[in-house]
Specification:
Helix content: 25-40%
Strand content: under 5%
Oligomer: single chain
Bound molecules: iron/sulfur cluster
Structural class: mainly alpha
Shape: globular
Low-confidence stretches: 4-12
Order of helices and strands: HHHH
Number of helices: 4
Largest sheet: none
Number of domains: 1
Distance between the termini: 19 Å
Mean pLDDT: 87
């Protein structure tokens, strides 16, 4: 999945909403995750997402680089988990290989 961020400033100032985990469900991840050797399909809960929607691999070397690069920002995170799931699902659909044409 290709992610779009609004600006470097907002990425640095927004904090992650507790118990959200939307960006660990909606996006596809193409690199291996412990317990998901082929990565994660879109709209599938990552097996490393804990019961409080926290990353069980946070700070560990086997956490995918995709996850470390995905910073909270207002556009993605919205005002609720549902808003975040909707935005991320729309981005996932818009950046599917069969939806991205080369012009
Ligand atoms: S969508 Fe935003 S608030 Fe929710 S887990 Fe991801 S970074 Fe945190
Ligand atoms: S490895 Fe952690 S941050 Fe990455 S998708 Fe899974 S739970 Fe989320």
């Amino acid at each position: 999945m290709t992610m779009f961020f609004p600006s470097p400033v907002s990425r640095e100032t927004q904090t992650c909403r507790p118990e959200c985990g939307a960006c660990c469900v909606a996006p596809s991840i193409n690199s291996p995750i412990p317990g998901m050797p082929n990565g994660k399909p879109a709209n599938v809960r990552c097996v490393q997402l804990g019961i409080h929607n926290e990353c069980l691999l946070f700070g560990q070397p086997d956490r995918p680089s995709f996850c470390g690069g995905l910073k909270p920002n207002p556009e993605m995170c919205g005002n609720s988990r549902q808003e975040a799931l909707l935005w991320l699902s729309l981005m996932e659909a818009a950046t599917r290989p069969d939806q991205v044409s080369e012009k």
